[in-house]
Design goal:
The complex is a heterodimer.
Chain A lengths: L1 H27 L5 H11 L6 H11 L5 H13 L5 E2 L4 E2 H36 L4 H15 L2 H15 L19 H38 L2 H8 L4 H7 L1 H5 L1 H5 L1 H19 L4 H10 L3 H29 L1 H6 L2
Antiparallel strand pairs in A: 1-2
Helix pairs in contact in A: 1-15, 5-6, 5-8, 5-13, 5-15, 6-8, 7-13, 8-13, 13-14, 13-15, 14-15
Chain B lengths: L2 H6 L8 H10 L2 H11 L1 H18 L1 H4 L20 E4 L2 E13 L6 E24 L3 E10 L20 H37 L1 H16 L2 H10 L7 H16 L1 H15 L2 H8 L4 H38 L10 H6 L4 H6 L7 H21 L5
Antiparallel strand pairs in B: 1-2, 2-3, 3-4
Helix pairs in contact in B: 3-15, 4-6, 4-15, 6-7, 6-9, 6-10, 6-12, 8-9, 9-12, 10-12, 11-12, 12-15
Classes of the chains: A mainly alpha, B alpha+beta.
């Protein structure tokens, strides 16, 4: 168990390092540096800064140094929670992102929950009633779910909501709740808005998970122990639920590893379409305005979030499945 | 290999078993795969759909009814015109003429179709000039107004805000988006085969390193990464340069699945007797790889390549939709869908959502064909 977790932890750390390197490269990619972009930004607002201030800023961010030195400075600052200033907001990046990152995590989490809620019963049904009308119907819907990019799905849902219910289904809060401080009413309001984008995000993952669960359960149902259980007179419900399902459920945990990046990816663009106050629209705005510290930080934190989530799923998997626990020893 | 298993895979009817016996034994690997694929109805249908798509790519200008870049403010946001095939009981091809007026109260342009005034259409009508296949100058189009007057127009899917014909733009977008898929997959394929091959053939620490790199790449959310890199493509680049930049960006992150498939094949084939035989016979490494191993898993690579298309098409569409991929005046599915970003606007002009349809059809078709190819890839299995 420990060796397994240690191996996973090392891999997670390497991944974090790789993400930080890629992120920093993205920050460095656009022509010019942060200070030139910052000055240009100020000028469009009718503001300006003196030469001295520009030099100070350059020194502060170490823009005159080599790539490697700059990278280390950036990492050192980042590990202290200081990610530089967001240009448009004239606030530290971390203040701009804070709330939105939490909402992104909430959205991702509920999407995974929905993926399971949808995939488990449908997967069981499709396996137990193989080749039934329902099985075919779900397989077809699953294929559609895989084929429709989730931002298109979001567009269509928004459109349908607008046409049929004359309601704007975007956003995560009711208009009157947006600025209120967090309290029970606001959280309930959030939950009321969260389910729709969560389901939209869950569809693609659900389709894949149904296929995996169906295949696994079909394999298990062929095995002699199931025949034995049936021969001993167990009810069909118990025959399926008691053992085969537990074995077949494993992929639900082991697939978080790929489900999480998928959903996080999707949440960015779905948030833009549905104007959800997550990091998605912020990232897009930052990239278009070439506010690279803000954009880079968002990419870094999203990556970190995914790695942590995957690592937690690894621990869960090792805890649930003894085969994995023993593999490393 | 048992006789039965060969038979199962070929879709040959048992009645004709006697004569087909020889056919099956004599058939090449590709022949067997084709027989098996043919049984897969959904994959065959998907294949036909894709052939139609690529025919549209080749003959894009011929199918389009008007110049996709010609804009006219006088006919912005016109709704689709219905094409009539019968005039009463008489077969005839026409649309109703549409008149645009400005609403005196809201100042919005409104269009009224006039059932009394018919604009006759004909096949192979004259329209804007272009070079068919890039070198045959012509002005014939599949369908268009018969008399060729400037005020006669036919907008099968309506027009966009600038009054450009959505149908023609959709056809052009199909050309761009489907070829981006092709180019991008080719680059992915090259990277995947090279790195997957090295990983699978040499094994050891090289394999370790490449596998970890793949694992890391797969654990990072792709869209933010794509967005980040795509945003740094300079704004003043020409359409062609942006096109190739986007293609390469998508390929750089998309090669991992292909590499995984290639590596898996290399690992399993390395243990096969015929590879050992070739080694013992003194064949060089290159010869073993390209003469003995690659032909036996080429079919698997083709299947995996087909399955790589959907992700690439969705990636390009998403990026362009967000305004980070191809930018106008380039036309792609994502660029067209940008016009549908505001729901309030789309509610009034639902035809702007139409470009979503080919995206979904193309992705589904590649998925179905890929699934079929994967099943057929191993005709001896």
């Amino acid at each position: 168990m420990l060796t397994f977790l240690a191996r996973r932890l090392v891999l997670a750390l390497i991944t974090v390092w790789a993400i930080s390197l890629i992120t920093f490269a993205i920050i460095q990619l656009p022509p010019g540096d942060y200070v030139t972009a910052y000055i240009a930004q100020l000028e469009t607002q009718g503001d300006f800064i003196s030469e001295d201030e520009a030099v100070n800023l350059r020194n502060e961010y170490g823009l005159g140094d080599s790539f490697v030195v700059q990278y280390f400075k950036w990492v050192r600052n980042a590990s202290r929670g200081s990610f530089g200033m967001a240009m448009e907001y004239r606030e530290p990046v971390i203040d701009v992102i804070g709330d939105r990152l939490a909402l992104t995590a909430a959205l991702t989490f509920t999407s995974i929950i929905f993926t399971w809620i949808l995939a488990i019963p449908i997967g069981i049904y499709s396996a137990v009633r193989q080749y039934s009308v329902g099985d075919y119907a779900f397989t077809f819907i699953g294929f559609l779910g895989l084929a429709i990019p989730n931002f298109l799905l979001a567009l269509v849902v928004l459109y349908a909501g607008f046409i049929w219910f004359d309601a704007s289904v975007g956003g995560l809060f009711s208009p009157e709740m947006v600025d209120s401080p967090y309290n029970l009413a606001k959280i309930l309001d959030l939950l009321q808005h969260l389910w729709l984008p969560s389901i939209i995000l869950a569809i693609a993952g659900t389709a894949q998970l149904i296929r995996v669960l169906r295949a696994n359960l079909l394999d298990e149902l062929q095995k002699p122990y199931v025949v034995t259980a049936r021969a001993k007179g167990l009810s069909e419900w118990r025959v399926v639920m008691k053992y085969p399902l537990r074995v077949a459920l494993n992929p639900l945990i082991s697939t978080i590893g790929y489900l999480l990046p998928l959903i996080v990816s999707g949440s960015i663009i779905v948030s833009v379409v549905m104007s959800l106050p997550t990091v998605g629209p912020l990232l897009l705005k930052a990239l278009i305005a070439q506010d690279m510290f803000l954009a880079g930080t968002i990419i870094l934190l999203i990556g970190l979030m995914t790695v942590v989530g995957t690592f937690i799923s690894d621990i869960l998997l090792a805890w649930v499945d003894p085969r994995i626990r023993l593999e490393g020893t | 290999m048992a006789e039965e298993t060969i038979f199962e895979g070929t879709g040959v009817r048992p009645e004709t078993r006697e004569q087909t016996d020889e056919r099956v034994y004599a058939a090449s690997q590709w022949q067997l795969m084709w027989w098996r694929l043919r049984r897969h109805k959904l994959a065959m249908a998907a294949g036909i759909v894709l052939i139609i798509f690529y025919l549209m790519v080749i003959g894009a200008e011929f199918i389009s009814t008007s110049d996709p870049t010609a804009s006219e403010a006088q006919r912005g946001l016109m709704s689709p015109q219905r094409i009539y095939v019968f005039d009463g009981w008489k077969p005839s091809l026409y649309v109703h003429a549409v008149e645009g007026k400005r609403d005196p109260i809201t100042f919005k342009r409104v269009y009224e179709s006039n059932p009394d005034e018919k604009v006759p259409l004909r096949l192979f009508a004259r329209g804007f000039e272009y070079k068919f296949l890039g070198f045959i100058p012509t002005d014939r189009h599949l369908i268009g107004p018969a008399e060729g007057r400037a005020e006669d127009t036919v907008f099968i899917l309506g027009t966009d805000l600038q009054g450009r014909d959505l149908w023609s733009r959709l056809i052009m977008a199909t050309r761009v988006s489907m070829t981006i898929g092709l180019v991008s997959v080719t680059v992915s394929l090259f990277l995947g085969v090279l790195l997957g091959g090295i990983s699978g053939y040499y094994g050891g620490w090289i394999d370790m390193v490449i596998q970890r790199v793949i694992e890391i790449l797969r654990s990072i959310p792709t869209i933010p990464l794509w967005m980040g890199i795509a945003a740094s493509v300079p704004r003043d680049w020409s359409i062609i340069k942006v096109y190739f930049a986007i293609t390469i960006i998508i390929a750089i992150i998309g090669w991992t699945e292909l590499a995984r498939v290639v590596r898996g094949r290399f690992l399993s084939l390395r243990e096969e007797d015929f590879v050992a035989a070739a080694e013992l016979a003194g064949a060089s490494q290159m010869r073993i790889i390209f003469r003995h191993m690659v032909p036996s898993f080429l079919s698997h690579i083709i299947a995996a390549t087909t399955l790589a298309f959907p992700a690439i098409i969705i990636a390009e569409t998403s990026l362009s939709f967000l305004g980070l991929g191809l930018r106008p005046p380039a036309i792609s599915w994502g660029v067209l869908l940008q016009a549908a970003q505001q729901v309030q606007a789309v509610a009034l002009t639902p035809w702007l959502l139409v470009p979503a349809v080919p995206v979904i059809i193309a992705v589904l078709a590649f998925n179905f064909l890929g699934d079929g190819l994967r099943d057929a890839a191993d005709p001896y299995g």
